Amino acid sequence: MKRPSISGKPSVNAAATGADPMEEPAAAVIPRAAASACIFRGDTVLLVQRGKAPNQGRWSLPGGSIESGERAIDAATREVAEETGVVAALTGVVDVNDVICRNEAGTLTHHYVVMVFVGLGTGDPVAASDAIAAAFVPLQDVDGLAVGRRVHAIIMTAWETQRLHTG
Q1: Measured between alpha carbons, how far is 164 from 83 in angstroms, rounded to an integer?
Q2: Tens-place pLDDT, residues 110-133
Q3: Sequence-distant contacts of 62-66: CB under 8 A, at least 24 apart
Q4: Do the beta carbons of residue 36 and residue 60 sit within 8 Å?
Q5: Which of 20, 36, 65, 71 is exposed most, by the fewest CB atoms within 10 A?
Q6: In angstroms, how far is CA 123 from the centroid of its own chain?
Q7: What is the pLDDT of residues 75-90, one digit of tens each?
Q8: E strand or H helix at 77, and its extent?
Q9: CB-side exposure of 37: number of CA atoms within 13 Å?
Q10: d(CA 77, CA 121)
């Protein structure tokens, strides 16, 4: 039985080649579509502390996978509400961010292509879903948190974008 190949080269199963199935490479990690949002209130930004991999324990923008048939903007709005209880009014896109994670051996474990929206939010954040904490954090305090490597730059770009939209 042939298995699909993502490389474009034909692939056969271990039984057909006589290879040991325990030595076959792990299944390829396929990039997954995701959406997140930079939500501002005054000079604060909404952040969540991740409760599971990838980036468990790190602070990031609320977001997650886009469900089949769901628009990216709707996914971002839904994820903000699910993770924090905050109601988001999104005004635009500020970034498309690749989140590529590898284990200690360098093996690819996760790959998300994240469309990042910007907007304003109402309501008080309460951690829910896969977030263990949620808060509006003053912009000047973001650098002091354990955040993903591009999170601070994305927040600053979103801040400038939001200021242009709101005057």
Answers
A1: 27
A2: 999 999 999 999 999 999 988 999
A3: 62/36, 62/37, 62/86, 62/131, 62/134, 63/34, 63/35, 63/36, 63/37, 63/114, 63/116, 64/34, 64/35, 64/36, 64/129, 64/130, 65/32, 65/33, 65/34, 65/112, 66/33, 66/34, 66/35
A4: yes
A5: 20
A6: 22
A7: 999 999 999 999 999 9
A8: helix 72-84
A9: 31
A10: 10
Which element (helix H / strand E) includes 166?
helix 151-166
Cβ burial 20-56 (10 Å sphere, 16+ → b, else e): eeeeeeeeeeeeeebbbbbbbeeebbbbbbbeeebbe
- The reply to whether the predicted model has a pTM over 0.90 is no
Give the right CATH number for 36-166 from 3.90.79.10, 2.60.200.40, 3.40.50.360, 3.40.50.150.
3.90.79.10
- % of the chain with per-residue pLDDT over 70: 83
Residue type, 59: W
Instruction: Report the amino acid identity of residue 154.
Output: I
Cα–Cα distance, 126 to 133 (Å, whole number): 7
